[in-house]
Amino acid sequence: MSQKLLDYILAKKHHALREDYTVNLSEIYKEAGMTPEERMADRFERLSKAQKPHILPDEQICFVRTTKQIPDCFTEDEWKEIKSKHFIHELGYISNLSPDYEKAIKNGLLALRETADKYGKRAIDNIIALSDRYREEALRVGREDIAEVLGRVPRYGATSFREALQMFRILHFSLWLEGNYHNTCGRFDKYMYPFYKADIDKGILDESSALALLEDFFISFNKDSDLYVGVQQGDNGQSMVLGGIDENGNEVFNDLSKLCLIASRNLKLIDPKINLRVSKKTPMEEYLLGTELTKAGLGFPQYSNDDVVIEGLIKKGYDPKDAANYAVAACWEFIIPGVGFDVANIGAMSYPKAVDRVLHSGFTSCGSFDEVMDAVKNEINAECEAIMANIKDLWFVPSPFMSVMLDEIKYRNFGFHGTGIATAADSLAAIKKYVFDEKYISAEDMVKAVDDNFEHYPDLLYKLRNEAPKMGNDDDYVDDISVKLLDMFAAALDGKKNCCGGCYRAGTGSAMFYLWHADEIGASPDGRRKGEPFGTNFSASLFAKIAGPVSVVKSFSKQHFVNAMNGGPLTLEFHNSVFKGDDALEKVASIVKYFIDRGGHQLQLNAVNLETMKDAQAHPEDHQRLVVRIWGWSAYFVELDKAYQDHVIARQEYCV
């Protein structure tokens, strides 16, 4: 690794190379009456030509954005017209796909150009032209090594590890420049390993030089990442998948996988965001390597369980070979590289909202808890039906270069998040226990207390928050309810076809909805007060008194995940002091393995320190590189809005 390059990027000196792009392209395109394809092709050409090649200090992998903005292709009036005829997902531009990097890196862009349409050909020509200008700049500043690499890629297929890394950088850079977002990295160690192995075998690289090259490559993800803002800074989708099995059942984890974990640990940067595919067959060594990365405080790797995910994807209609080749989208959603056009985050269903609706319409007339559960099931069905009914005539802005990078599309499935399951399960358990089983409070008074935000019910509030059953304590009284809730959600979507002919997938993730959905309702029967957020993703309530991480793992691995194949991790926060003991790594790694062996499907861990985060809120200048996990991605704590900072601070800190 070049410390000089890393310091240059961390100091954001390359930001001085950026210029505003102020041309109002949407008005030009509207006046010219250009088609969406023509607009995208023209915008990409203009932006490519606007880039000014720079070779940064000591870098081996080049390309850096020098335009600050990517202007919209459509005016506000045009978007209004489009939205009157179509369902538009998020920004309307393509996101959250895993293109076929392997094919492009092996064969080069000229080979892909042969089968591209005229807009794809135009995109490729502009990419090659920009690469040639970078080659000229490399020669001008005396970097013959970079010029030599660019003499081959991206025109032709890579013949070395460095060429393959540079080729990926150009492809990834171009996808962002085209206006796509949440561009993922796919199964990096699977398609890159042949280039790495060949150079090692030939003696061109050894482990040390390969690691230095890989670290330079990882730094490249952080050059422009501040320009790719999702809901929050850091939410950019640059996720990389390592390990797992291939389509023939062979283990993929290799020496390059290990180097990726080491490079990430050494750099301590938020990108790329590392995901590990594991299973019951995964050796402890891999868990220990992953835990070393967790110890570094990056909030990753995120773990996905092949034993559960592959079975679940096949159950949803994916070809077994494609299911075995799954990657993850920006956060955790399962997608298939090259052949998948799934929209994995098109909707979100709130479990607590379903409970709240029952509470305020029919609850007091329910004669049994079973009737309450039946009513909740009906509300979940109704909410899912309403979301599905709203998604008609889905339309995306065409993406000429992304289209070149995809094979024949086989999957156009939609994914729904499911938020606040612990809040809902805990609320229903409280209703079961105190209204029906113990008759501690009447249904009418429970509703009054909730609507009062418990202001005049302090004793009840204490009981609900501190004594009522809570998910996370391995208590079947409440955990069994969560199993039923997830099954209800999955069943509500099962067998339904979307407007693209694909299926719907229920998920256990929440994304940012743990804040948004919580604001849609008042207090809840679990003792959560109005304004308090839900737990993130598939996790315990923030205020729940939890016995420890093992009981959490037990509670959150009982559900039927093969029916909920949109992903969504259990999130565990460990106090960073956990990693100070001699056997700390083994303890934490054992918990991860225990979760996987029990059939949990996704897991992510944070190493946090409450006092450090509070000090970072007060003195952000002293904590510029403090990293935390948010929902499915990691960010620099000081760059987050206070609501997200406060949520991380409020989460459980576990010890082992």
Structural notes for this entry:
The protein is of the alpha/beta class and 656 residues long. The chain has 3 domains: 15-183, no CATH class; 184-332 and 569-656, no CATH class; 343-568, no CATH class. It has 27 helices and 13 strands. The strands form 4 sheets. A 6-stranded mixed β-sheet has the order 1-2-3-4-11-10. Helix 17 (369-390) packs parallel to helix 22 (476-493). The two termini are 34 Å apart.
Which structural traits does this protein have?
3 domains; alpha/beta; six-stranded mixed sheet; 656 residues
Summarize the SSE layout with pairings:
Layout (H helix, E strand, L loop, with lengths): L2 H8 L14 H8 L3 H15 L25 H10 L15 H7 L1 H5 L4 H23 L3 H7 L10 H18 L7 E2 H15 L4 H14 L18 E5 L11 H13 L5 E6 L5 H12 L6 E4 H10 L4 H5 L2 E2 L5 E2 L7 E8 H9 L9 H22 L9 H5 L9 E6 L1 H17 L5 H9 L6 H9 L9 H18 L10 E3 L6 H4 L32 H7 L14 E6 L8 H14 L4 E7 L1 H9 L8 E3 L4 E3 L5 H9 L6
Helix pairs in contact: 3-7, 5-9, 7-8, 9-10, 9-11, 10-12, 11-12, 12-13, 13-25, 16-17, 16-19, 17-22, 19-22
